[in-house]
Amino acid sequence: MKIDRRFPIRVAITFGGGLAAALVVLVMADKPDLVVPVVVGALLSMVNVLAGFFAVEYSLNRSYTTMLKAVLGGMGIRLVFMLGVLVLLIKVAGLHAVALVVSLLSFYVVYLILEVLYIQERISHKSKS
Predict the structure, then answer these.
(1) In the chain, how many domains are there?
(2) Would 40 be classed as within a structural domain?
(3) Tell me, what's the pLDDT at 3?
(4) What secondary structure does DSSP assign to 65-126, as a single string?
(5) 113 near 47, Cβ under 8 Å?
(6) Residue 60: CB partners within 8 Å, gap ≥ 6?
(7) In whole angstroms, what separates CA 108 from the centre of its chain?
(8) How far apart (Å, rounded) are the C-alpha atoms in residues 11 and 91?
């Protein structure tokens, strides 16, 4: 299985740019206590999207049924995993809930757009071959 490296590079660029922008806002707002939950939320979201990427790469050269099972089933598993980790981070680690959730969801939405565009790009390229 040959892995297309363009998507992880896009994710890394998005992560770096988004995190830099968030940190600038936090510094300007004088909220250094929110840095850790924002970074953790961004990292959790990045792990989620990279797991989705590997599910797409795994299922790309298989039937559409297999691909849908891997991608959609994997999405359900990833969401349940993220919810569990989110609860642990808030209840056990005591991270600031609002900062963590806003960071997680903000990065999640951006990564979801990147993931959908990537899947569409890969499927259309597969159809042409």
Answers:
(1) 1
(2) yes
(3) 79
(4) HHHHIIIIIHHHHHHHHHHHHHHHHHHTS---HHHHHHHHHHHHHHHHHHHHHHHHHHHHHH
(5) no
(6) 67, 122, 126
(7) 5
(8) 29
Residue 1 lies in a domain: no
Q: Check: CB of residue 85 under 8 Å from CB of residue 44.
A: yes
77 closest CA partner among 95, 51, 99: 51
Q: How far apart are CA 113 and CA 107, in angstroms?
A: 10
- Which residues, given as ranges, of the chain have pLDDT below 70? 1, 126-127, 129
The torsion of the CA quartet 13, 99, 32, 35, rounded to 10 degrees, works out to: -30
Q: Is residue 42 part of a domain?
A: yes
Domain enclosing residue 27, as ranges: 6-128
| Lookup result for tokens 């510094």 | 27
Measured from the Cβ of residue 80, the count of other Cβ atoms closer than 10 Å reads 10
| Stated pTM of the model | 0.89
Question: What is the amino acid identity at position 93?
Answer: A
